[in-house]
Specification:
The protein is of the alpha+beta class. It contains two helices and eight strands; from the N terminus they run βββββαβαββ. The chain has a six-stranded mixed beta sheet with strand order 1-2-3-8-6-7, with helices on one face. A two-stranded antiparallel sheet has the order 4-5.
Protein backbone atom coordinates (compact mmCIF):
# COMPACT_ATOMS: atom_id res chain seq x y z
CA UNK A 1 0.00 0.00 0.00
CA UNK A 2 1.24 3.46 -0.89
CA UNK A 3 1.64 6.00 1.93
CA UNK A 4 2.23 9.68 1.17
CA UNK A 5 4.65 11.41 3.55
CA UNK A 6 4.32 15.12 4.24
CA UNK A 7 5.86 17.30 6.94
CA UNK A 8 5.98 21.02 7.52
CA UNK A 9 9.60 20.59 8.71
CA UNK A 10 10.67 20.25 5.05
CA UNK A 11 9.74 22.44 2.08
CA UNK A 12 6.28 21.89 0.70
CA UNK A 13 6.16 20.49 -2.84
CA UNK A 14 6.49 23.22 -5.48
CA UNK A 15 4.85 21.08 -8.14
CA UNK A 16 2.70 17.99 -8.64
CA UNK A 17 4.72 15.60 -6.47
CA UNK A 18 4.85 14.37 -2.87
CA UNK A 19 7.73 15.03 -0.48
CA UNK A 20 8.02 11.25 -0.19
CA UNK A 21 6.14 8.05 -0.87
CA UNK A 22 6.49 4.82 1.10
CA UNK A 23 5.68 1.46 -0.49
CA UNK A 24 6.38 -1.94 1.11
CA UNK A 25 8.98 -0.67 3.56
CA UNK A 26 10.80 1.45 1.01
CA UNK A 27 10.77 5.25 1.20
CA UNK A 28 11.28 7.30 -1.96
CA UNK A 29 12.12 10.94 -1.17
CA UNK A 30 11.67 13.42 -3.99
CA UNK A 31 14.68 15.52 -4.93
CA UNK A 32 15.23 18.09 -2.21
CA UNK A 33 16.54 21.55 -2.99
CA UNK A 34 17.91 24.01 -0.42
CA UNK A 35 14.66 25.71 0.50
CA UNK A 36 14.14 26.83 4.08
CA UNK A 37 10.77 25.26 4.96
CA UNK A 38 9.78 28.28 7.09
CA UNK A 39 10.25 30.83 4.29
CA UNK A 40 10.20 28.64 1.16
CA UNK A 41 13.21 30.65 -0.02
CA UNK A 42 16.60 29.33 -1.12
CA UNK A 43 19.08 29.55 1.77
CA UNK A 44 21.85 32.09 1.44
CA UNK A 45 25.41 30.99 0.87
CA UNK A 46 27.25 28.65 -1.43
CA UNK A 47 27.28 24.93 -2.10
CA UNK A 48 28.08 23.91 1.49
CA UNK A 49 25.23 25.93 2.99
CA UNK A 50 22.87 24.69 0.30
CA UNK A 51 23.90 21.06 0.81
CA UNK A 52 23.45 21.43 4.58
CA UNK A 53 19.86 22.64 4.04
CA UNK A 54 19.13 19.83 1.58
CA UNK A 55 20.34 17.28 4.13
CA UNK A 56 18.24 18.90 6.88
CA UNK A 57 15.21 18.65 4.60
CA UNK A 58 15.94 14.99 3.87
CA UNK A 59 16.38 14.34 7.60
CA UNK A 60 13.02 15.93 8.40
CA UNK A 61 11.26 13.76 5.82
CA UNK A 62 13.05 10.62 7.02
CA UNK A 63 11.98 11.39 10.59
CA UNK A 64 8.37 12.11 9.60
CA UNK A 65 8.23 8.71 7.90
CA UNK A 66 9.87 6.87 10.82
CA UNK A 67 13.23 6.35 9.12
CA UNK A 68 16.76 7.62 9.77
CA UNK A 69 19.89 8.35 7.75
CA UNK A 70 21.01 4.83 8.68
CA UNK A 71 18.13 3.46 6.58
CA UNK A 72 19.23 5.28 3.41
CA UNK A 73 20.38 2.87 0.69
CA UNK A 74 20.70 5.16 -2.37
CA UNK A 75 21.17 8.86 -3.10
CA UNK A 76 21.26 10.70 -6.38
CA UNK A 77 23.02 14.07 -6.22
CA UNK A 78 22.42 16.62 -8.95
CA UNK A 79 24.88 19.49 -9.12
CA UNK A 80 24.88 22.69 -11.12
CA UNK A 81 28.62 22.23 -11.69
CA UNK A 82 31.01 19.33 -10.94
CA UNK A 83 33.34 21.91 -9.39
CA UNK A 84 30.85 21.79 -6.48
CA UNK A 85 31.31 18.03 -5.98
CA UNK A 86 34.08 18.15 -3.36
CA UNK A 87 32.46 20.73 -1.04
CA UNK A 88 29.06 19.05 -1.45
CA UNK A 89 30.66 15.70 -0.64
CA UNK A 90 32.18 17.05 2.59
CA UNK A 91 28.77 18.06 3.94
CA UNK A 92 26.99 14.99 2.54
CA UNK A 93 29.60 12.66 4.04
CA UNK A 94 29.08 14.10 7.52
CA UNK A 95 25.60 12.55 7.50
CA UNK A 96 26.85 9.10 6.48
CA UNK A 97 29.91 8.38 8.61
CA UNK A 98 29.38 4.60 8.66
CA UNK A 99 28.10 2.31 5.92
CA UNK A 100 27.23 5.11 3.47
CA UNK A 101 24.54 4.48 0.87
CA UNK A 102 25.13 3.82 -2.80
CA UNK A 103 25.24 7.09 -4.71
CA UNK A 104 25.37 8.71 -8.10
CA UNK A 105 26.34 12.32 -8.74
CA UNK A 106 25.74 14.26 -11.92
CA UNK A 107 26.26 17.78 -13.17
CA UNK A 108 23.17 19.00 -14.95
CA UNK A 109 22.53 22.03 -17.10
CA UNK A 110 20.13 23.67 -14.67
CA UNK A 111 18.29 22.95 -11.41
CA UNK A 112 14.97 24.34 -10.16
CA UNK A 113 15.10 27.86 -8.74
CA UNK A 114 18.72 28.20 -9.88
CA UNK A 115 20.00 26.19 -6.90
CA UNK A 116 23.43 24.54 -6.80
CA UNK A 117 22.36 21.08 -5.54
CA UNK A 118 19.38 18.72 -5.44
CA UNK A 119 19.44 15.29 -3.78
CA UNK A 120 16.90 12.48 -4.04
CA UNK A 121 16.97 9.63 -1.57
CA UNK A 122 15.75 6.05 -1.15
CA UNK A 123 15.57 4.43 2.30
CA UNK A 124 14.58 0.90 3.32
CA UNK A 125 13.40 -0.34 6.71
CA UNK A 126 15.82 -2.93 8.08
Amino acid sequence: MKRIIATDKAPQAIGPYSQAVEVNGTLYISGQVPLDPATMKVVEGGIQEQTQQVMKNIGAILEAAGYSFGDVVKSTCLLSDMANFKPMNEVYGSYYTQNPPARAAFAVKELPLGVLVEIETIAVKA
